[in-house]
Amino acid sequence: MAFKIYTKTGDAGETGLFGGQRLPKSHLRIDAYGTVDELNTYIGLLRDVVKNEFYRNVLKEIQDRLFTIGSNLSTDPAKNLDPPDITTDDIQLLEKQIDEMEDSLPPLKNFILPGGHSTVSFCHIARTVCRRAERLTVGLHLTEPVEPLLLRYLNRLSDYLFVLGRKLGKDLGADEVIWTPRK
């Protein structure tokens, strides 16, 4: 018999964590890992439009790590299961990439608005969804322990996506859109 995608177990507004606990679909834990899943989708879209193979490979690595974060957040914390982990090496990869990209960019002297090229805008969409995922995960951490490396990774990833947007814009010959406040 083939695997069916629908189970009908969520029809009443609940879903199950890995480990068995059932929670309302509106629970903060579900919102956090659902937003990480949404972020992973935007990273996939970004990867589809980026032509540079090196950046595509880094984005695929990020997608793998986001799936790891989602696995962690969707695991019942009371069951002491062993979900995949995020390591300091994962965070250092992002930091190394940020540093290398920043070395080739002009110093940031203004606030940058999303835009200038669709690829840059996709970076900013992913960055803002990443910030939301981080906020939700921090909120969850205030009520239930969350592995601190997950929080650090999401924080660093939003920085990476900002700098990646700047770098890709430069590589594409797109002008940065500078915020101009009213006088």
Number of helical segments? 5
Order of helices and strands: EEHHHEHHE
The CATH class name reads Mainly Alpha
Principal-axis shape equals elongated
The biggest beta sheet is recorded as: 2 strands, antiparallel
Descriptive account of the structure:
The chain has one domain: Cobalamin adenosyltransferase-like (Hypothetical Protein Ta1238, Chain: A, Up-down Bundle), CATH 1.20.1200. The chain has helices spanning about 30-50, 55-75, 90-105, 120-145, 150-170; strands at about 15, 20-25, 110-115, 175-180. Strands 1-2 form a two-stranded antiparallel sheet. A two-stranded antiparallel sheet has the order 3-4. The mean pLDDT is about 90. The longest helix has 26 residues, at about 120-145. By secondary structure, it is mainly α. The chain contains 5 helices and 4 strands.
